[in-house]
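Worked example (supplementary).
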Amino acid sequence: MDKLTHIRSQLPALSAQVYLNTGTAGPLPEPVRAAMVESLAAQAAEGRIATDYYVKLSKLKADVRAQHAAMLGCEPDEIALTQNTTDGMNLVTLGVNWQPGDEAITTNLEHPGALFPLFAARERYGITIKIADVLDRPADAAAVIERLITPRTKLISLSHVSFITGAVLPIREIAEAAHRHGVPVLVDGAQSFGAMPVNVKELGVDFYAVTAQKWLCGPEGAGALYGSRAAAAQLRITFAGYGTAQAYDMYSGLLPKGGVQKLEQGTVQPANLAGQLAACRWLSQEVGMDWAYERIRRLAAAARELLAAVPGVTVLTPAETAGLVSFQVESDADRAVKALAEQGIIIRTVPHPRSLRLSAGFYNTEEELERLAAALKPLAGGR
Ligand SMILES: Cc1ncc(COP(=O)(O)O)c(C=O)c1O
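After joint prediction of all chains, the assembly is encoded as:
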């Protein structure tokens, strides 16, 4: 059995459909399902407060942090466990020491995961949100953003890969520009982590929020947040719990953990952690990150080409892609997505501007992309 056939055999969801929607949620691999089931079975059989229960849980958390640190190029103490990308975005955005009149910068390519925490900060602290227009020129984002920085700018919050157009933003250049003005950078890594190489130290960012359920093919309800030690030290705690403290005293209060882990709070589902760990291990050891990235890159490029040749289709995604490819049709986008789903081909629409979006997973094949292109021909409204 060749490698791709073996990998696909571990993803049962692929046999029923042409699954091109990992940007929403990846297919669940058998080893991840098995790890989650095993965790639940142990909880049922042994009870949830067996003597070594918390010892095991603490080891599981440490293993998940270490895996994420290895995959993101940082140290385990720079990783906090979160629920999802949005959780990480909220913890950082609301943790800035905002004063009324302070400013945040984001772009017009963002998901609610980055935007809504900024809206909440505006509501709560009276900040101003500046939106960099980079829709048609993502490659120039650093210059566009730098022009918006003022002495009141306290945060730049944006995604590495836009969930709308699939554009990869020049995060390293943006971080360099931000740091020339002493502004921290928070990156929404929902569409980059697991889809393309990410090294937070090489990117030079301050915070990077990721999740398990998308390109990692892990469970929902499990994410991680990178925060450099220096940036984490500047951040205030919005939600505090036993996970936050190194020590505490009833009267004098809590001594927070050193770095970004001070943002961890209370009890989490161990089965999620077990699934998150299994997904990291499966992807990095069995699938191989380089193999996965190379396939994703190649398939996304093939998708751009195949779609561009379909009459009525306009491809929005620039040549440098991660795994998302967005396009517009001359017909009704929702109707096209529904008609494709009826043929077992799963893609989705995205807003602002309204488009269709496919996700090229490492487990997808060129034949699947050809099937999509062929099925689109009569639906795209072209002549
Ligand atoms: C760019 C981006 N950010 C954030 C999210 C939300 O992610 P999560 O559900 O992990 O919070 C998504 C997808 O849903 C996304 O595409």
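Two points are worth noting when inspecting this output. The chain has 14 helices and 15 strands. Residues 8 and 15 are 8 Å apart (CA to CA).
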